[in-house]
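JOB MANIFEST
job_type = single_chain_structure
chain_count = 1
residues = 248
[input]
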Amino acid sequence: MYPDFSVGPLTFHTFGLMMALGFVAASTVVYFELKRKGLNPECVYWIAIAAAAGGLLGSKIHYLLLHLDDLKSDPLSSAFSGAGLVWYGGFIGGLGAAMIVIRLYRLPWGKAFDAGAPGLALGYAFGRMGCFLNGDDYGKPSDLPWAMEFRDGSPPTHFKVQPTQLYESFSSLLIFALLMFLRKKLKHDWALTCLYVALAGIERFLVEFVRANRMGQSQQQILALATAVIAAVAFVWIQARPSKVPAS
């Protein structure tokens, strides 16, 4: 793990760097997807900024709701610390903020969200790689050949654990590749978005079994399963409708 590195007098934190690279990579994909669909690609910058701000705020709020005792005992430290970013809160916050910008630009909802789905998968892969380099969100103790220690992690470990951050990063790259392959083949708006949400939910549901500090069916796992099922049903329903226009 490499939580930070220096270039001359400058010190860079790898988590922040990977998050920044993720937003750049995701925005680039969304830009060209909007352009391919005949929509204004310039709005992607404002969508990315809104999604980033909304995602950080939403993830922090979700974390605080899960740790109300910490918030009550030390509200300032809990609210303004850099720790505690929960994916589902970030997804909801980022989605809501992006929807506001999409509405302001009067973009068609389905096409705009389908343009963003591959970018979300790619950006999440970068984010989880940042977690790996920072040494947090790792898995349970393990003697698997690829298990590793995070001696400077958050919190540190002095025994080998499963690198669940890499599991999620690799899975998200596979989801990204699949979405890019299917984006011209799916015939209806919203289909690609529903497919992404279903696959991301399945991935999160499975990885929760081996993440650290999880007891049985955690809240995150239940949310992941429910999200995956709802999105999968929506995907099947959307695809079953008669096609009116060629896929864009």
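[summary]
The chain has a mean pLDDT of 86.
Residues 59 and 233 are 26 Å apart (CA to CA).
exit_status = 0
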